[in-house]
């Protein structure tokens, strides 16, 4: 046990451990990002058929499909990825970004997510040090990374991730980890209601839906983790970044002005900024407008 404490108390070793752990978690997040939407679509389809009292034509039982099984395969040829071919970042480089069986190119997105998760995990470990703050901040960051890419791909923020994140934030703050429990509860309520009000104001004014309910739940989760005091900062950062990216997409990429833009990635980015530097940014901002 003394060896474990000595390891945690050694900053460089602790950060290195977080880097390696983050790379491995990033590899798993790639699975979550790819499979969870498919699992939810299958579940929703089954629920719709049950609601309509319809049954699909009998067919062979579908093989198990979840976050653990089946083993990852090449989408082009079905080659099962071996353990040596699944080492985060390293395998992609050794294989020269190609499947070992059929030579089809492997997207750079997989090692990018792994590397980003690893580096962010290492920074969080350095930022918070060897304490429970680091553990909770890592879980917070990992869930936000998964939500970011799922929303970017599907424009969905699954309840399977947003709601556990919300409840966990409240539980973590029972001990006042990132904020007081009172501030966390108020943050969850105000986080949800603030975007809910924006949603209905926009819908009444235009007849269109400006965002999804998943955004409300994600901001509620951020409020539960960080408290109501940081909600204005989170909303400001996410709105500013979203506006800039949207304008760049229209001007540079020629994106349709009416195209829907997922808001979840900007909320997630703002949440990460807030958990790392939110208090300092709040103090700096308020200090520029003394009473």
Structure description:
There is one protein chain. With 291 residues, this protein is an all-alpha fold. Helix content is 67%, strand content 0%. The chain is built from ten helices and no strands. It has helices at residues 2-8, 11-51, 90-94, 109-128, 132-154, 159-172, 181-206, 213-226, 231-251, 264-287. Helix 5 packs across helix 10. It starts with a helix and ends with a helix.
Can you give me a brief rundown of this structure?
With 291 residues, the chain is mostly helical.
Instruction: Average the pLDDT over all residues and give the rounded result.
Output: 88
Structural class: mainly alpha
Order of helices and strands, N to C?
HHHHHHHHHH
Instruction: Give the DSSP E fraction (strand runs of 2 or more residues).
Output: under 5%
Range of helix content: 55-70%
**Number of alpha- plus pi-helical segments:** 10
Broad shape? globular
Summarize the main sheet.
none
Radius of gyration: 21 Å
Brief descriptors of the model:
10 helices; 291 residues; mainly alpha
Q: How is the topology of this model organized?
A:
Elements: H1 2-8, H2 11-51, H3 90-94, H4 109-128, H5 132-154, H6 159-172, H7 181-206, H8 213-226, H9 231-251, H10 264-287
Helix pairs in contact: 2-4, 2-5, 4-5, 5-6, 5-10, 6-7, 6-8, 7-8, 8-10, 9-10
